[in-house]
């Protein structure tokens, strides 16, 4: 439940940021595309970082078990 809710929060935040950039920084088609690309990339990267940390806590590796060859 927490993963889905937070993912939706990231999606909504990305949409709101995209709309704000479109309204506040309307300088031309190429600049608008750059702003939109940067916002989407930042949102996806932040979500991926959060998701990796969240999922890594589900089964933590406290004491690594080394094989005989190492």
Summarize the structure.
This is V-type proton ATPase subunit e1. The chain is mostly helical. 73% of the residues lie in helices and 0% in strands.
Key features?
mainly alpha; 2 helices; 70 residues
> Which strand-content bin applies to the residues?
under 5%
Radius of gyration: 19 Å
Helix segment tally: 2
Q: Which sequence of SSEs, written as H and E, runs from N to C?
A: HH
**pLDDT below 50 for ≥5 consecutive residues: which ranges?**
none
The 3D shape can be described as elongated
In total, the number of strands is 0
Q: What share of residues is helical?
A: over 70%
Rounded mean pLDDT score: 88
Secondary-structure content class: mainly alpha
Straight-line N-to-C gap: 39 Å
Main location: membrane
Transmembrane segments: 37-56
Signal peptide: 1-17
Pfam families: ATP_synt_H (PF05493)
Explain this structure to me?
With 70 residues, the protein is an all-alpha fold. Helices cover 73% and strands 0% of the residues. The radius of gyration is 19 Å and the shape is elongated. The termini are far apart.
């Amino acid at each position: 439940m927490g993963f889905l809710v937070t993912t939706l929060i990231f999606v909504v935040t990305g949409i709101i940021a995209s709309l704000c950039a479109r309204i506040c920084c309307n300088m031309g088609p190429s600049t608008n595309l750059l702003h939109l690309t940067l916002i989407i990339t930042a949102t996806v990267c932040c979500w991926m970082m959060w998701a990796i940390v969240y999922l890594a806590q589900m089964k933590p590796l406290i004491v690594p078990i080394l094989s005989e060859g190492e």
